[in-house]
Amino acid sequence: MLQSIPTIDICTLADDIKQDDILISRFAPYLDAHKNLFFPHRHSFYHLVLFTDGAGSHTIDFESFTVKPGQIYFMVPGQVHSWSFEGFTDGYIINFSGSFIQSFLLRSGYFDNFSFLSSSNPADEVIDIPAEHLPVIINLFESIIAEAESNEAMGSDMVKLLMLQIFIQLSRIQGKDENRGRQGYNHTLIRNFQKMIEQHYIDVKLPKDYAEMLYITPNHLNAVCKDVLGLPAGEVIRNRTLLEAKRLLTNPKLSISEIAFNLNFSDNSYFTKFFKKIEGITPEEFRKKTLNNKQ
Prior knowledge:
It comes from Mucilaginibacter celer. By secondary structure, this protein is α+β, with helices and mostly antiparallel strands. About 50% of the residues lie in helices and about 20% in strands.
């Protein structure tokens, strides 16, 4: 499938990464070294930033957030991201692969406990840290910076432990503790449905086909989606296709016909009708609006 925008890999960001699958830095020098990352791009890794100074905005999958001190945001691989800062901006940044933390855990699905690591919904990934919790989070980031610079024995394991402390603290702030991963059959079913959509949304369009893969009836799948997500199953599938269409439309080198083909629409007209019915504007209008906003 054609890529709409550049995909950034950890190894392209630094030539001297001391630990496999992870990059740790204070944010100001990272930003200074990577000025080219202001344009929209994807990551092939998990990405988290804690702001301690600065203002402006950052956008995740076309949803914009105001930058402010005490805010932390996460990105999962594949999401489209860009930022625009006003004045001096600082904080901490950690880029890491899924295998970096998972290699330390016996439970392969442990990330599902944390909405900011298991969701592709930007609203779950941006957290405003209350003032009373901020010193604890900052101290953990400082400890990670110190470990990354120390070259002490088992430093990689210590970084993983400190990162897990950050995840657990943030999950508690969100009010979604470790019990989130044990909220019952319906939530497990929805997570599996969403993972299947991520793998098959281009070729599998109908709820009945996903229901068959999940060994349940279409009515059951639809009822659970409405109960947990507040949306019918078909809308969940269509929203994922729409998101990818938006991502592809950010690349002016791709024609509307090419995007329609890559999303498995039978023709350009059908794709345009699909997009306008959900978004309210045509793909061409969305592209013009989005690209004008980036100038």
